[in-house]
Amino acid sequence: MVKTINQPACSAFSTRSPLFSLIIILFAVLLLVPFASANTVIVKAKPERNVVKVDEWASFYVTIFNNQSIHDIFHISVEQEGVEWSMVTSPPEYGLTGIRIKSDEYETMRVFLKDLHLPRDAARPRTINLIAESAYLQRKGVAELQVYLLPIEAYEKNISVLPYFPPSIHPKEQQMLQVDIVNRNARQYNQLEVTLDSVPVQKAKLGVDFQLGDMVVVDDEHIKLISTSSIVDLKPNETKAIKFGLGLPKTVEPLQTTLTLTIKDGNDTLYQQSFPLAIDAYSVPFSAELSSSKTVFLKTTDAITVTNQQNIRETQQVVIPSSFWKRLFTETEPLSEVKKINGQYNHIFSVDLSPGEVTTIVVVRNYRIVLYGIIFAGLIVFLYFMFRSPIDVRKHAEKIQLQEGGIVELRVVMTVKNRSHHRYDDVQILEKIPALIKFDKDHAGDTLAPSKIVKTHHGEVVYWSFDLEAQEERIIPYHIKSKLSILGDFTIPPSVLLFMLNGHKIRVKSNRLDISSSTKIE
Description:
Strand order of the largest sheet: 2-9-8-4-6
Low-confidence stretches: 1-16, 28-38
Shape: rod-shaped
Mean pLDDT: 83
Number of strands: 38
Helix content: 10-25%
Structural class: mainly beta
């Protein structure tokens, strides 16, 4: 019974299954359509003029839709560009640097196409794929452009043009551009005007202190790097080569521009084509030249002019030679770093300059300080000899006797010298003998006996009195003894010398005498 009831149900489901599956598939496709179109690039083209004669440009309005989730830059190209077709955009920079389009927005421009001597058939259009590729996500959109090439009529293609333009030029060197014009029929052309014109660029791109030359000022901020023309006559079947000397400012910055070649016969334009042109960057060492030098009383000031003769901004090191002695008396503005390179001392300057910019380095070598130092040292010596004591006293120890490792006896020698040319009477020396040791009276009269000996709580004070002749040197020795051996070090205080000078009592001290038991002096 159960089997009988379920049998029709299964049959009915089986009958509706294909239709139901088709509905499910269609529903899924509809759901996926928005996601399929997301993150894509859509390119649409509308012809403005797609039926052209020889050397005429076809034109299209091209719209690029950025359906990506991010802002992007789109570069456009056509298949076989430069081989079968030439392409120019309006504005020109869209074709050179790309088009910046925000997410979910679009941009429209004009695209011009011209065939490069393709077979012509007005009945069958030429199909060109215009490709727009995003720079960041690298997604592409393609639009098909159809161009009808009208056949050549009698004498319609009057001339053929072969331009020889390099893809890039070096602004430091004189450039030569050549255009070959061939008259391929029996007609003669008189006063053909051949013009080379470039897209205006900002004056700021030319660096500083540039010469205008053949350039044309467009407005206060823009200038044409190239704007020149030539007049030529063409006989039937004649070929002429026209050369244009191109001189650019050496400091023009690297840039991408467009050069347009136009040939006119009166008001009739026979030929017009645009070519991309790049200005190369180049780097050379900054020039450093001595612009001025001034020397005043042992002080030399050099001004060195540094120039950026390249077309890019750069930071370079400028080296000014010096020497071991010169660097000690040299100051620079700006400050420099002194380095020794291959045995030579040099001042190193880090200089940042824009194209054509000039700066000045100042190097000052001042030897006056040497003269001032000599004068100061001479003054010190003069004052020393002027104000020093005319009588000098020094003392030293000798004949140190040791016993059981300690000092028991020694001899002290005092040397008194009159350094002046005057005699001094009643010169006195006071010598303090520490309490640990005792003045030896047995040897007191070796040369000059003391005038008196005074005992104090701190030891003994021995006095000598004598006269000193001019330039006389007197040696006064005396002996001291110790009852016990003195271990280690002990000190004899400085001797004090007294004499009268111009009614004033002058007091002069000798050196202090440090005695050590570790050294035996004979």
